[in-house]
Predict the structure.
Amino acid sequence: MAPQTYTGKDMVAAHTGMNISGDEFIAVIDDVLDALAKHDVGKREQDEILVILYGLKPEVAGI
Ligand code: HEM
């Protein structure tokens, strides 16, 4: 498959004004990690995704 290009909003534009708290942000990451584990995604890959998602916290929560 050819490389795909993201054409959606950036994270700040998508989430500004939603009043997403830090706890709500972490709850969503927990759900993502549960889904990865359920589908037998490797621990190393789970950790990589955790780091990527957690890095988006300033762009999603508290804005
Ligand atoms: C790392 C975490 C997150 C990522 C990567 C993410 C990513 C996205 C993306 C790509 C969109 C679509 C942007 C577009 O319309 O082009 C979106 C929309 C949205 N996100 Fe997030 N999101 C995250 C966390 C959250 C959290 C924690 C909440 C709420 C608790 C949330 C609520 C929403 C809502 C309500 C929309 C708009 C849906 C709509 O209007 O169609 N997101 N998000």
Notes: The chain has a mean pLDDT of 97. The chain is about 60% helix and 0% strand.
